[in-house]
UniProtKB/TrEMBL annotation:
<protein>
    <recommendedName>
        <fullName>Ribose 1,5-bisphosphate isomerase</fullName>
        <ecNumber>5.3.1.29</ecNumber>
    </recommendedName>
</protein>
<dbReference type="InterPro" id="IPR042529">
    <property type="entry name" value="IF_2B-like_C"/>
</dbReference>
<dbReference type="InterPro" id="IPR027363">
    <property type="entry name" value="M1Pi_N"/>
</dbReference>
<comment type="function">
    <text>Catalyzes the isomerization of ribose 1,5-bisphosphate (R15P) to ribulose 1,5-bisphosphate (RuBP).</text>
</comment>
<keyword id="KW-0413">Isomerase</keyword>
<dbReference type="InterPro" id="IPR011559">
    <property type="entry name" value="Initiation_fac_2B_a/b/d"/>
</dbReference>
<dbReference type="GO" id="GO:0019323">
    <property type="term" value="P:pentose catabolic process"/>
</dbReference>
<feature type="binding site">
    <location>
        <position position="67"/>
    </location>
    <ligand>
        <name>substrate</name>
    </ligand>
</feature>
<feature type="binding site">
    <location>
        <begin position="211"/>
        <end position="212"/>
    </location>
    <ligand>
        <name>substrate</name>
    </ligand>
</feature>
<dbReference type="InterPro" id="IPR000649">
    <property type="entry name" value="IF-2B-related"/>
</dbReference>
<feature type="active site" description="Proton acceptor">
    <location>
        <position position="132"/>
    </location>
</feature>
<feature type="binding site">
    <location>
        <position position="237"/>
    </location>
    <ligand>
        <name>substrate</name>
    </ligand>
</feature>
<comment type="similarity">
    <text>Belongs to the eIF-2B alpha/beta/delta subunits family. R15P isomerase subfamily.</text>
</comment>
<dbReference type="GO" id="GO:0019509">
    <property type="term" value="P:L-methionine salvage from methylthioadenosine"/>
</dbReference>
<dbReference type="InterPro" id="IPR037171">
    <property type="entry name" value="NagB/RpiA_transferase-like"/>
</dbReference>
<feature type="region of interest" description="Disordered">
    <location>
        <begin position="311"/>
        <end position="334"/>
    </location>
</feature>
<feature type="active site" description="Proton donor">
    <location>
        <position position="201"/>
    </location>
</feature>
């Protein structure tokens, strides 16, 4: 029986930081995972190509298991490992590191392209409501501000981890006037809002958007008020293996994010649920903005086919470690 490959400490530390949300945001998770694979490849002491592939697959599995809903993570792992090629260890190491560099470079460029495309949806004087924290969504506002538009923001604080506070801080750094509100006040503020702008952790083939819990309710309220809902998401967040949003595994977080042990005992709660995400049906979304353009949610499957082809595998489970796939899982393709 093969011994379990020894993983580099950087892989273990990256996995811990992703699992504990010290690294958050789909693009940041993907970048960190790719970098960790690069470190594993560069420092591997494998004596044979087969041993090297086993080690790389083990590293990818360790990272993959940390966050089941953030599809950017398996997309990053898939991109890196599917380019692993060579007949000797040195060549395999080189191809992995080249793949990591290409992925990380394109990740940076993709967000800039997305921001420029998304900025076109906003006009001078618009008020935008945000939920949670999304670097993709913020890139759209930043590009609009840089083009000369005066934008204001209503920012939901997004409990229980209050990621909206990060959004509010970064918008203030851009010079955007911010009104921070509690989540339950969103409906009351929608009459004063021109757009709802959110990110995504995953997008299913039918255009369903999996994002921070509370997104679906906000989208329903926005639709009721006639406020367009725009989703900003790099193509690393497309979920090519999932036909509908209901098929995506929804991560359940620690209940201590909601209640500390003392409060839990005081209120006598038998059970506390803390789902991290919910699913917004495509009928409540007006547009999905990617670095490849804007798409009605029902048409996002066309982009998936262009980028991924009709068949997508998971190379960290493949016996040969190649994980043949369609087009690149990175945001810009190859």
């Amino acid at each position: 029986m093969d011994e379990t490959p020894e993983l580099h400490s950087d892989v273990e530390e990256t996995a811990r930081r992703i699992a504990e949300m010290e690294v958050r945001g789909a693009a940041s998770i993907a970048d960190a995972a790719a970098a960790a694979l690069g470190t594993q490849a560069a420092t591997a002491e494998s004596e044979t190509p087969e041993a090297f592939r086993r080690t790389m697959r083990a590293a990818a599995r360790r990272l993959y298991e940390t966050r089941p809903t953030a599809v950017s993570l398996p997309n990053a792992l898939r991109y890196v490992l599917s380019g692993m090629d060579g007949d000797d260890v040195e060549t395999l190491q080189t191809t992995v590191q080249q793949r990591v560099s290409a992925f990380r470079d394109d990740l940076d460029d993709a967000q800039d392209r997305l921001g420029q495309i998304g900025a076109g949806r906003f006009s001078d004087g618009d008020v935008v409501m945000t939920h949670c924290h999304s670097s993709d969504a913020l890139s759209c506002i930043e590009a609009a501000v840089e083009s000369g538009a005066d934008i204001e923001a209503v920012v939901k604080e997004t409990r229980p981890r209050k990621q909206g506070h990060i959004t509010a801080s970064e918008l203030r750094e851009l010079g955007v006037p911010v009104t921070l509100i509690v989540d339950s006040a969103a409906h009351s503020f929608l009459d004063d809002v021109d757009h709802v702008l959110v990110g995504a952790d995953s997008i299913a083939a039918d255009g369903s958007v999996i994002n921070k819990i509370g997104t679906a309710g906000l989208a329903v309220s926005a639709r009721d008020r006639g406020v367009p809902v725009v989703v900003a998401a790099q193509s690393i967040k497309l979920h090519p293996k999932t036909l509908t949003g209901t098929a995506v595994a929804i991560e359940r977080r620690d209940i201590r994010e909601v209640l500390d042990e003392e409060t839990h005992e005081d209120i006598g709660a038998a059970e506390v649920a803390n789902p991290a995400f919910d699913v917004t049906p495509p009928r409540h979304v007006d547009a999905i903005v990617t670095e490849h353009g804007q798409f009605p949610p029902e048409s996002i499957v066309t982009l998936m086919r262009e980028l991924f082809g009709d068949s997508v595998s998971e190379p960290w489970t493949d016996p040969d470690g190649t994980g043949a796939t369609g087009a690149s899982a990175a945001s810009g393709g190859e």
